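#struct-help
A.M.: can someone run this one for me? Single chain, 326 residues.
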Amino acid sequence: MLRFLTRRTLGAAVTLLIIAAITFFMFFAVPSDPARLACGKVCPPEMLELARHNLGLDVPLFVQFVEWIAGIFVGRDYEGLGHCAAPCLGYSFVNRAPVFETIIDRLPVTVSLTIGSALFFLTFGVATGIVAALRQGRPLDKIASVSSLIGASVQIYFIGTLALYFLVYQGQILSQPKYVPFTEDPLGWAQGLLLPWIVLAIIFTANYTRMTRSTMVENLAEDYVRTARAKGMPARTVVMRFALRGTLTPIITIFGVDLGTLIGGAIITETTFGLQGLGRLSIRAVVNSDLPTLMATVLVAAAAIVVMNVIIDAMYAVIDPRVRLN
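D.P.: on it. Structure tokens below:
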């Protein structure tokens, strides 16, 4: 098991290094003047020269990349701006602050949005899919299938706008979405994010319902499940111990990818509900031509997906012993 996780971790580290290299060269080799992009739209000449010097544009491109990677682990000094402590993802000349500080300030919003919505759509999606598979061909199964199809077809900005209008502005059933730190007010934290959680859950629950139902139907027809039934095992044991275990593998796969994507920044959701998370930060970086912040958000999003894939591999090894043997 330890060797299995070690190989996956080393593979993830190499993948992140490749992604970092592609991101760096894409932003620094393609533009004609990376300093202009890093400094932003409104940049006085003296700040432009300072940005050009601090980005190391006077040295070869490979040396720039090595210095950028080294800054992530040991920090980096910026002339006229001070020291950027590790992990240093660059200095935002637009915000006049290290990019990592901005990432840390916005990350709790995105993580809170991700965790809350994930609990909703994973619980309801898997439960609905199991019930639909056990009631295959019956009205409940058809209702679940139609509902999941509708849920997968609508967009967050559409259903989110309707939810805001009817549940917040008109009905006043839910409070205006906002972020309150969990450590300050747990109840206010949940109330402020409840509507975004529900809207995200509606979209994602549909996919989990369809995936769980189709996989559960296949597993219920397997020989080992029919054998367990023939031996007189209770239906609950057959479903939870045998059929569900085989169903979890594809569910874990899509859950890990979805979780990593959401942590990387739920751009549309945060924009719809006015939440200041990583998604809104990336949009602002594009609008303001804030190259260091944009690079950092891309790298954080990639890291979230890669880390979640490592966790998925570890869970595979727990659920299916054959993975450890391979």
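A.M.: thanks! The CA atoms of residues 125 and 205 lie 4 Å apart.
D.P.: also worth noting: The chain has a mean pLDDT of 83.
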